[in-house]
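Work Package 3 committed the consortium to producing structural models of liganded targets before the mid-term review. Because experimental data for this complex are still outstanding, the team generated a predictive model from sequence and the ligand definition alone, so that downstream docking and mutagenesis planning could proceed in parallel. The input record is reproduced below exactly as it was submitted to the modelling pipeline, together with the SMILES string for glutathione.
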Amino acid sequence: MIKFYYSLAPNPMKVALLLEETGQPYEAVPVDTRKGEQHLPAFTAINPNAKVPVIVDGDATVFDSNAIVLYLAEKSGQFLGDGTPATRGQLLSWLMFIASGIGPFSGQAVHFNHYAPEKVPYAINRYDFEAWRHWNIVEAHLAEREWMLGDQYTLVDMALWGWLRALPFVLGGAESWARLPNTKRLYDAINARPAAQRVEALRARHTFKAEMDAEAHKAMFPQNERLKA
Ligand SMILES: N[C@@H](CCC(=O)N[C@@H](CS)C(=O)NCC(=O)O)C(=O)O
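The resulting structure, written out as tokens with the ligand in place, is given here.
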């Protein structure tokens, strides 16, 4: 059975959705990143990048959420679109756009707005601008089609959903949705699916540390230790 190493953060949640949508049996293994469990040798042996998610599927170990989403969709033969070269091109393009744009810029916007030990106007402005710029590209794309690849729900929508769940935290509050009506429509449509509801049940299965205290900052933002020297 597939072992799914996860926390409740955006990148693991997109994999949880794909596992639930494709119906592949899996064992969910919690990794409490606020307690530093991502740095334990047993975990870095499967992901040297010390981050969740990771899956272990027999002899195959896959880390990095978008690689996992693609691996699992291809394994199941589902949610890949209509299989034409045109769709394949769009699928890879949007998946990499999420991997290299949506994820990193949204993550840094969260970091500098909510967690940085000091408010750095330059960094806040850059990442807020870039996060909005990326989400506005998604919004414009969705204004013209139902799902990211047209009329079919695919792994690209699932990869986006991980971050949609955190979008108000990324972009400065619940009012952000008013500026992204088509993105909100996609979010609501995925939330209404039984698989998304099963992911919510998974969220309740294990208890993760809730506090972003000194221990959590040390585990997740190790660069700050250099400032204390
Ligand atoms: N590119 C990676 C990023 C993974 C990532 O940043 N994971 C976060 C949770 S969303 C994490 O493990 N954070 C703990 C840490 O950075 O120490 C992916 O898409 O899987």
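Reviewers should note the following from the model. The first strand starts at residue 2 and ends at 6. These observations will guide the Year 2 experiments.
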